[in-house]
Amino acid sequence: MALKGVVLAGGSGSRLFPLTLVTNKHLLPVYDRPMIFYPLHALKEMGCEEVLVVVGGRSVGDILELLHDGSDLGLSLTYRYQRGALGIAHAIGLAREFAGADPIAIVLGDNILHGSLRQFADGFVAGTAGAGAVLKEVPDPQRFGVAELDASGRVVGFEEKPERPKSNLIPIGVYFFRPSVFDVIGDLRPSARGEFEITDLLNHYLRDDELSHTVFAGEWQDAGTIDSLIEANAFAVEFAPEMPVETGHDVGEV
């Protein structure tokens, strides 16, 4: 049983307009490389060798031209197309055939991480939990799904983009699931936003006491808005040189 990786790189990137009017946001530069290189590196560091890239929109050909089969990055890549912005849980559902009987690690395509998750990933594969989530304290939790804690500090629920967050602790866009997740996704219903929410998926596993989690000790930055993209570039300057860009492409051909 091997951990397989999934990068979610669909969506319209509307919060980054006009930068994304003619390209996929995951192709935008973050310091010295395209944004999508960062989640791919994170999955490789967790031990994933096979990765599914879920794509969408009009720039699919550009993503394939950049990444090809993944061998230049030391990975084996396959692709699935997501029609429309139907939410993170829906995008995860597209990985059913790719996952087969293996557990999967999901990283959102606009997540920039510095620090290792290998120990948590190995523990999830060896353990029995149905799902896993990586959490982090942030100053602006209302932009994200937010964890609700009880008096003892145990996670008891997640709420999507609340006006009044119950904590500063959020799932940062790194998730782990066993193949049972695809049946759970099949039973989900769209939220008021018309999307299949990752928070509903996490809450299902919480109710069954099947969710493990860790609070990420490393550094994390998302790049989903203009302001956070600027911050991500400054953030990546500090550690991107530690992440080699292994590519065999002739620069003149890309």
Could you characterize what this model shows?
It is a single chain. The chain is an alpha/beta fold. The chain has a single domain (4-244), classed as Spore Coat Polysaccharide Biosynthesis Protein SpsA, Chain A (Alpha-Beta Complex). It has 8 helices and 13 strands. A 7-stranded mixed sheet has the order 5-4-1-6-11-8-12. Helix 2 links the parallel strand 4 and strand 5. The longest helix is centred in the last third of the chain and has 12 residues, at 226-237.
Looking at the structure, what is the overall shape? Answer: globular
Number of helices: 8
Highest-level CATH class: Alpha Beta
Strand order in the largest sheet: 5-4-1-6-11-8-12
Named CATH topology: Spore Coat Polysaccharide Biosynthesis Protein SpsA, Chain A
* Ends distance: 36 Å
Uncertain regions: pLDDT < 50 for 5+ in a row? Answer: none
CATH homologous superfamily designation: Spore Coat Polysaccharide Biosynthesis Protein SpsA, Chain A
Please tell me the overall pLDDT: 91
**Range of helix content:** 25-40%
Radius of gyration: 17 Å
